[in-house]
Design a protein that fits this description.
This protein is α/β, with parallel strands linked by helices. 36% of the residues lie in helices and 18% in strands. The protein starts with a strand and ends in a 9-residue tail after the last helix.
Amino acid sequence: MGKRLQYAVVGCGGRGLGYVKLLADNDGVFADVDLRALCDPHEPTRELLGREHGISSAHLHDTVEAMLQAEGDNLDCVVIATPAHLNKICALPCIQRGLHGESSV
């Protein structure tokens, strides 16, 4: 197997939880990805999801900027799972950092 993609999820509410569960299926389609970091301003939600998926507190962040600063070049992609009105402000720093995706759909 080649390099495993390292991803982060921004937004640890219902949508973020759904993405984490989907991408954590290491026996399925996403067997080549690893959840590296989580980002959410609500500490209890972020901490709970981190504990449930084995993410150490060093990889739990309260802002997108803090996450990008701390994770450096270790991220390959970021899933934005915030409420719609926050998508742009959360996605823009990731796009500027070169962490944007392409879709074949």
